[in-house]
């Protein structure tokens, strides 16, 4: 099995605090009914979480479903250490196996005979240059009758209050730099098409849309801080400068706008996510 070359996870792992807000309820609600039925009717149900990152959704699945056994994979051993620490803190790490692997090499990494009742990926495909090839691997490791569950963002749907020109420019810059780094900013709306291209039966593809809204002071601090930091020193700034699509001064102004957004008690930010369920 050959590995498709990837630049890695373009945003990097220094600003992942915003990932740690994620739980099964706020980021995988579309899958909970399926998991409830599975866990009520199956002995030793299994879930594979690919691109688990800091693992807060993973650990949340384990907390909600005490008989669920989870394998959590990520490209980065560094982030897996954080995910394991989080699972330890919640007392669920005895039911989670953490492993570093590349989604493109999933079948080879897990072994031909290893299949799961549910294969889950949240906000991973959006970062990949060949999401269809990745989905082929995800589908291959689901049991016959098992499920593929993917949720991914539609980056163009970021919306804000206050709806300022500077935040709109920031959104356009985020789209351009994300796509230039090899990702697919329209991943959320593409999930169904990618699943069919990866070999799923169209009749079995179920699509939905879910949302996030960040409005509390704590949420504003974490999200505004992440977006400010990405534009001050992250790969978004470097890529924008390489592409010549924003100046240092324009990006410094965007960082200040995020500071103003964080301090504004009325401010909020929302986004939409495509949700895919396929029964194999
Ligand atoms: C936006 S984070 C999402 C993490 C987690 N699923 C969540 O929603 O909190 C994307 C994760 O995908 C991982 N990733 C990116 N490319 C990958 C690949 N080719 N194989 C496996 N994991 C990958 C990154 O290391 C990163 O941790």
UniProtKB/TrEMBL annotation:
Every Methyltransferase domain range: 46-165
A GO term, aspect molecular function: methyltransferase activity
UniProt cross-references to InterPro entries, sorted A to Z: Methyltranfer_dom, SAM-dependent_MTases_sf
Protein name from the UniProt record: Methyltransferase domain-containing protein
Organism for this UniProt entry: Cryoendolithus antarcticus
